[in-house]
Each structure stands twice: as C-alpha cells, then as structure tokens.
Specification:
Radius of gyration: 17 Å
Shape: globular
Helix content: 40-55%
Number of helices: 5
Largest sheet: none
Distance between the termini: 50 Å
Strand content: under 5%
Structural class: mainly alpha
Number of strands: 0
Order of helices and strands: HHHHH
C-alpha cells in the first residue's frame, strides 16, 4: 500500500507542471486574442484553438503544430509569429489570423467565418492589422 501511495505522489509531482502550464498559455491567448467577456463576464478560449481534444493535451491540430514550431520559450511571441505568418493551417481558405479575428478555430477546417476572407482582411487592416495581436 505504501508503494501505491508513493507512486501516486510521484505521478502528481510529474504531472502538476503540465496541468499548471496550460493555464498560463490559455490566459495569454485570451489576452492576446483580445477576447471579450462571454458567459458570466468570464473570458474564455477553448483548448481547441491548438488541440484536437477539447480538454487539451496531445495531439495538436494544424494550428497548434504551427504554434509549437514557433515556440522558443515565450508563448506570446509564438502566438504572434504564428498569426503573422499568414498561413491557413487547417486549409479552409482563411488565414489563421483571420480566423482568430473572426472568432473561429484556425486549426479546425469545419470552423470557419461566415463572411469572405477579403472582407475579414479589410476589417482586420482597419482594426490595426496583425499587430493587434502583438504581445503586450
């Protein structure tokens, strides 16, 4: 029984940093994506911006893989560089930055804006362009 208790404690020590890490990344995305209060004055961002699974963890979707490729120790910079690249990670015809601007998921081809990419690009440029997503 003592071995089981030790195993559980060791597992918790190993996994705790992984669980805690997700929170700061999500908070950075909320701030950087300029998300506004939705349900009960709480700003949220779904794990599915970057992950296939709604609860996060591996595997990552196409946008998450782009983000991971740009990650060099600073999540804010990685988010910005990923959006600045103007790639369409999920191949749905909308650049990742346009999907974030529209509030859809850049890593899910089934989640796409209801307006044209041209309209979104014009709106994004009027709002300040990709630089509205620069880390603060």
């Amino acid at each position: 029984m003592r071995k089981l208790g030790f195993f559980v404690l060791a597992l918790a020590v190993v996994l705790l940093p992984l669980v805690q890490a997700r929170g700061p990344y999500r908070l950075q995305a909320i701030t950087q994506f300029n998300l506004v209060a939705d349900n009960g004055d709480v700003r949220t961002v779904t794990c599915q911006y970057c992950h296939v699974n709604p609860n996060g963890g591996a595997p990552w979707n196409a946008f998450g893989n782009q983000l991971r490729a740009n990650f060099k120790g600073n999540i804010g910079e990685a988010l910005y560089e990923t959006l600045k690249a103007m790639k369409d990670s999920d191949g749905d015809g909308y650049a990742d930055v346009l999907e974030v601007f529209a509030g859809t998921l850049p890593g899910d081809a089934n989640s796409k804006p209801l307006v044209t990419a041209q309209f979104l690009m014009q709106s994004l440029e009027k709002a300040g362009g990709v630089d509205i997503y620069k880390p603060k």
